[in-house]
Amino acid sequence: xxxxxxxxxxxxxxxxxxQRQYIRDYARYTRTSPDxxxxxxxxxxxxxxxxxxxxxxxxxxxxxxxxxxVAIVGNSGDGKGLAEGVARKLIPDLLDAGETQPVSGExxxxxxxxxxxxxxxxxxxxxxxxxxxCVNQRALxxxxxxxxxxxxxxxxxSTLEPVLLSGWSGEPLGGQNVxxxxxxxxxxxxxxxxxxxxxxxxxxxxxxxxxxxGLPQRFLWCDTKDSQAPDNRPPEPSGMFTFDVDRLxxxxxxxxxxxxxxRAGARERMPRPENGGDxxxxxxxxxxxxxxxxxDHDRVMALHGQRQDGMDAxxxxxxxxxxxxxxxxxxxxxxxxxxxxxxxAAQWLVRHSIETRERCISEGRRIGNRKRADRIADGIExxxxxxxxxxxxxxxxxxRRLQRCVDWIPVYLQDNDPSRIGVPEGILRNNLTKADRxxxxxxxxxxxxxxxxxxxxxxxxGKRYALAGAM
Length: 471
What we know:
Layout: H1 10-15, H2 18-29, H3 34-48, E1 53-54, E2 69-73, H4 80-90, E3 98-100, H5 105-109, E4 113-117, H6 120-126, E5 130-134, E6 138-143, H7 146-153, H8 160-169, E7 192-199, H9 205-208, E8 219-223, H10 246-249, H11 255-264, E9 283-284, H12 289-303, H13 315-330, H14 340-377, H15 383-416, E10 423-424, H16 425-430, H17 440-449, E11 453-457, E12 463-467
Parallel strand pairs: 1-9, 2-7, 2-8, 3-6, 6-7
Antiparallel strand pairs: 4-5, 10-12, 11-12
Helix pairs in contact: 2-3, 3-4, 13-14, 15-17
């Protein structure tokens, strides 16, 4: 066990927990990677954890959800699907969670929200023909290969990437359809979305190139390799792996409460009971003081402009989330308590995730460079073909920068215009890089067409843009 001042080692990580040790031993018995199996297990733990079980606000913001996105790294045939299968054996019951592949950003809201017709009396009293209700409070997206996800995200006007970002953060999902009777919206704390995808190094750029929006930073990256796998297959570990999902089931809100949340649209808008209590109480996990100190230090560094940026900017929030899920995995008597060992284990796992991610991205770049060198050596890039390739690359670059703008605008508006009064086009332009600015107008047009954003009139008649929805 690691001391309070020393980080946990890999050996301590696996041996300091009976649950993790069983996962490691069972993975090696089934000839799969312990790292990949654990990642898939944590995604399943996150899925069965009710949406009202959350991490603390820490800095005065809102409590954060425990959604988990996992990238399992390996080449074709390395065992990405096998790791998911082993995790399914360890935690077979997902409490009726929806399991599917994402088709579009708009479609994700339909996993959680639906509309049902009202009776004639209710239609008259509510002045509407249908009401929102919760179809399901949990879903696990399984994408065998990141290329499938990348193809969907790369379609012009696709909202899948910003919706995945919102789903990881637990923000409201769904558009603001003009016809209220067709509007589908899953409110914060009313759903739990998790995701598992396979990533071949050659396709790592599909995630890595989206670091501007923060998508790859939100994933826990796990490796299909196990350098310490024994030459001879070990026996099946003794005993049984126990994870009682019913202990989490009792914490989830009732269907009546969930439907009331969906109708209200937010906890703050739900009518309070006569006793003045919380109409939708949250179960907030308890973290050790060291976590609060780490968050406070991170905020000070941010205020001083000294916090690390790039792909490690979200590592602290990911570590907080992993610590909560590791604690839930332990199934202790005090289910919602995160110990110092849980925190140190999460720190080790996130460090390992960052190393796995960087190796994957570096290998992907080497593969790309090698392919380009082979094309040149084979004479494929002759002068005539070179012009065609150059034109194709210019068009690819145009599409890439346009998509960057399409992805960036909703994220910027979410962070900088919470009241949805609108942001002038000039401010949006000034916050883009010079290379991306020429594509702003086309990106705005795409987002207006897909109703992700709305155009509003400014005080002096100028145009402003805000996320779709009521002001």
